Amino acid sequence: MIEDREPIRVALLGCGTVGTEVVRLLQEHPTEYAARTGAPVRVTGVAVRRPHKHPDVPEQLLTTDAAALVEGSADVIVELIGGIEPARSLLLAALRAGKSVVTANKALLAEHGSELYAAADANGVDIYFEAAVAGAIPLLRPLRESLAGDRINRVTGIVNGTSNYILSAMDSTGAGYEETLEEANRLGYAEADPTADVDGFDAASKAAILASLAFHTRVGAGDVHREGISGIGAGDIEAARSLNRTVKLLAICERVIDEDGTESVSARVHPAMIPRDHPLAGVGGAFNAVFVEAESAGQLMFYGQGAGGAPTASAVLGDLVAAARNVVVSGKGPRESAHAQLPARAMDWTPTRYHISLDVADRPGVLSQVAATFNEHDVSISVVRQQGRGADASLVVVTHTAADSALRATVEQIARLSSVNEVASVMRVEGEQS
Ligand SMILES: NC(=O)c1ccc[n+]([C@@H]2O[C@H](COP(=O)([O-])OP(=O)(O)OC[C@H]3O[C@@H](n4cnc5c(N)ncnc54)[C@H](O)[C@@H]3O)[C@@H](O)[C@H]2O)c1
Ligand SMILES: N[C@@H](CCO)C(=O)O
Ligand code: NA
What we know:
The structure is a single chain. With 434 residues, this protein is α/β, with parallel strands linked by helices. 47% of the residues are buried. The strands form 3 sheets. Strands 7, 8, 9, 10, 11, 12, 14, 15, 16 and 18 form a 10-stranded mixed beta sheet that branches. A 6-stranded parallel beta sheet has the order 3-2-1-4-5-6, sandwiched between helices. A two-stranded antiparallel sheet has the order 13-17. It contains 14 helices and 18 strands. β5, α5 (106-122) and β6 (127-128) form a beta-alpha-beta unit. It has 3 domains: 2-135 and 309-329, 3-Layer(aba) Sandwich (Rossmann fold); 140-305, Dihydrodipicolinate Reductase, domain 2; 350-429, Alpha-Beta Plaits (2-Layer Sandwich), CATH 3.30.70.260. The chain has helices at 17-28, 30-37, 66-71, 87-96, 106-122, 140-146, 161-172, 177-186, 195-198, 201-215, 234-242, 309-329, 366-376, 404-415; strands at 8-13, 41-47, 62-63, 76-79, 100-103, 127-128, 152-158, 225-226, 245-257, 263-275, 287-294, 298-305, 351-352, 354-360, 381-387, 394-399, 402-403, 420-429. Residues 13-19, 47-49, 66, 80-82, 86, 104-106, 131, 135, 188-189, 191-192, 307-308, 312 line the site of nicotinamide-adenine-dinucleotide. Its cofactor is a metal cation. One of its GO terms (biological process) is methionine biosynthetic process. This is Homoserine dehydrogenase. The active site is at 206 (proton donor).
């Protein structure tokens, strides 16, 4: 009988939005977890900061001493504290003590992933982190395992629920930024410090993890170009709408191949306009979706809930079953794969496209002045549209692909033209052929 087998002992570090759901589900379905693992899965301790705040957790399991739990008799440590310290030291101590680790901590993995993977490898234990990117969506396991036989060229994702919630509301109801952020907070989507969500730090951590797995290369948070959504206004949303596009905060991980065949990895997070018929355009609310383009598989789309207690707990528990089963059968999960060692592509030299909306003087020669500036920077124009007359005249330009630095320099010079009153909106364009 499975119930009679030696239990797998699990210690939980942190019991907030996600941890509470993990404990609840383990208590609700013990026979199912035992059957899938091959032995009972028993929580032997839960480290928290304030024990009186956790009436649903059996009192004898609660402790404020996370380090003691890590040093204790647990087989698997589940870290749901978040942030760098003390999570990093606790997980290194766990791995060095021969314990497998499950974590949802993207910030930690993006900053110190290599150190943790090396410690897991050296000690013959597992580190699983499916919940760290796109919450409930099975994504990292497909990248690490199912697609290990393919060559991925591009991963484009909506990987921050909070910012997608805000942008979707701005697009559909014209709701304001602050009120939508408050609601995302209340629903448990936002990080402890929501600037991590709206300034793109959370998505950048996830981009680093995705790029590392997709391109078999170590990509850290510092390699990811990052821009958030706090500068997006109603004018940008409207400009996108008038071109049948919508604005999304995208994490883009791309294999860039130069003319001489040299490969590099571009990892970036920024708002971008995408066509309304792009598969990512219909992803609303706090939902996440990740679009993967691979040489043999072609296009794949992963969609679902990327945030919230229960959805994230689903991914954590999937990892826990895998880690616990490996303890039962003396198996091992996948190791870090970083053999390709591709260099990081600087944003300045990354090929992008811009949408630029200009408030211009309505007089002859404006268009040729603007066009000459593009020419000077070797940027070619894909679409140009003049709208309105007199004081309301505006010029909308969508470029072909060029180096991001050349596009930025073009915009800076255009802003100084006497015939240009204001650069009303500048945004990168993604998801269509140039
Ligand atoms: N909430 C989500 O939707 C979501 C989704 C995916 C991943 N994550 C990740 O999951 C992790 C947990 O997120 P959360 O939303 O549950 O955060 P949370 O802030 O709700 O919970 C963290 C808990 O850890 C406790 N804690 C802090 N320091 C501690 C310590 N030294 N010892 C014991 N407990 C300590 C805090 O008191 C808090 O209760 C984070 O890494 C987060 O990025 C969260
Ligand atoms: N704060 C994150 C949680 C999931 O990682 C989000 O909004 O997507
Ligand atoms: Na996931």
